[in-house]
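Standup notes, protein team

Yesterday: finished cleaning the Vigna angularis var. angularis set.
Today: Cysteine-rich receptor-like protein kinase structure.
Blockers: none.

Input for Cysteine-rich receptor-like protein kinase:
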Amino acid sequence: MASVSFTLFSFLPFLCVIVIISQSSAQTPCDNSKGNYTINSTYHNNLNTLLSSFSSHTQINYGFYNFSYGQGEDQVFAIGLCRGDLKPDECLKSLNDSRVSLAASCPNQKEAITWTVECMLRYTNRSIFGVMENQPTNDNYYDLNVTGSVAEFNAALESLMRNLTRIAASGDSRLKYATGSTPAPNFQTIYGQAQCTPDLSSEDCTKCLDEAVSKIPQCCSGKAGGNVVKPSCRIRFDPYIFYGPTLKLDPDVPPSSSTNNTSSSRGKSNTARTIIVIVVPVACVVLLLALLCIYLSLRKQRKKIEFEREEESDEDEVAFTESLQYNFNTIRVATNEFADSNKLGQGGFGAVYKGQLSNGQEIAVKRLSRDSGQGDLEFKNEVQLVAKLQHRNLVRLLGFGLEGRERLLVYEFVPNKSLDYFIFDPTMKPQLDWQMRYKIIKGIARGILYLHEDSRLRIIHRDLKASNILLDREMNPKIADFGMARLVLMDQTQINTSRIVGTYGYMAPEYAMHGQFSAKSDVFSFGVLILEIVSGQKNSGINNGESMEDLLSFAWRSWKEGKAINIVDPSLNSNSRNEMLRCIHIGLLCVQENLVDRPTMATIVLMLNSHSLSLPIPAEPAFYMNSRTRSFPEMQSWEYNSRERGSSEPILKSAQESENEASITELYPR
């Protein structure tokens, strides 16, 4: 993505380019700043000689020509690149046509480039081989709007282009090219293409394609097709298929030639036949025995290597786990015997204490409840998994401690307490201006996206709320308290549970009512968080005259009446009014009743970073009720487990707001 940088869009159709791109001057930039040449000069003659020599390189069957000709200031460097499904003769014809049009459009420029439907041709008087270049850049769009949800279309397109970028960048020095398709809303299909000049490294190809993709929101938002072309790469997406099968680069093995030798002597022929009859079977038997011995030897050696690798892997995991374990007495001394004066907060899974190690490092220690029923091995395994999560917007787990029934989690210390300490306190909220709040919103989004898509594990947090967002010295947000999180398989989209845990007001309806949770459950919680950050109000209730109204209902009613600005915290100035209204719009999209209507975190990151991207119209949010028909209790953490309690009654637990509840584990194993 994004984003995620925006890794979302793809190639403008090679077929559509005739309609969209056309052979205009915009597609043939001539650079006068790099110097000019005169007709029939040495440079001119070298240029003509070089470009006309492409057809002489008959060994090239992969559509990429990169050659130079001449010496000194008159040396010419040229690159010709054809689409990956063009046959050699078609490629050369397209390059020759480009050569003619380029000479007409740029008659005396030493540096020029042109893009057509089938190919790209560029030349210059400087070395360009293996150099990633982004300028000049051209982009166009297909004059057909997306039908249905633009956000869902963008999400499908993002997934497609991530895959095509990865495949193209993994190509060899002959071809870095990928095509593919993916279904989109309303029975649409998106066809995409990505290509780099093969002289680029995999990293440069990925970077070039990512930067090309990031241009799409500026030119083609809401369009069914578009493309971006650069000197080093090009991308394209289209509602119609525009490419053929990619050419196979490796030529077929030519059939071995055979000669018929006739003997002038029947005796010699009979002797040769006798020798063949005897020797061939013997040779076959010997060969089979030799191959069998080699196979058994290699199999034994492979098993030995695999066993050694397993042993090394196990040793590495053990060493890693041991490196995370703190001596219990060390932690006890660091927290001054878990003194109340060092206590930062109390959560549903235990108390959190501030501590300082002997080297001066400040830590936050969570002392888990002793009735968890978890064994030492399971606890170590879970800690080991969570310790591998590394992201600037997640609180980092440093290690753990064990002593009898004691379970301790050691985290980095985050000094500026939690988000709720600021946004819900009338005296503290003025310290968070809009720019700071917007930075916090985007940071939380990046952290959730990492958990959902980019980490080694796929994790659903299930308890995202303001008190679980900690702020570091620069007020960067860090997601904390993974005590209710769940590990899921990468291809799982939804999971059912009979143990519903979370915080009232932040839980998605399908989870609160049916125990069904997914990545879209976290999206719902994030939507509530956005609205709270913008408004400075808790979702538990807002005074509305003589009645109470929850934040989602108040935000929806205000937005529907065209008065969304009423939601904004009065302590904020109106200099960034459009940005605030856009965040309210995104928040309402996140809290839709139907989880299908909620955007993914990848799409949300894109929405937050690209103001030119149009947003779909939200529907009535979940739990919406008229403010006169209900009142809202204080927010509470609650848990329902019919299997353990044998009852359908929810078990309510008081959720104490913590100052710095730095917690990150108790993941339920798969």
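Follow-up from PR in the comments: The first helix runs from residue 17 to 20.
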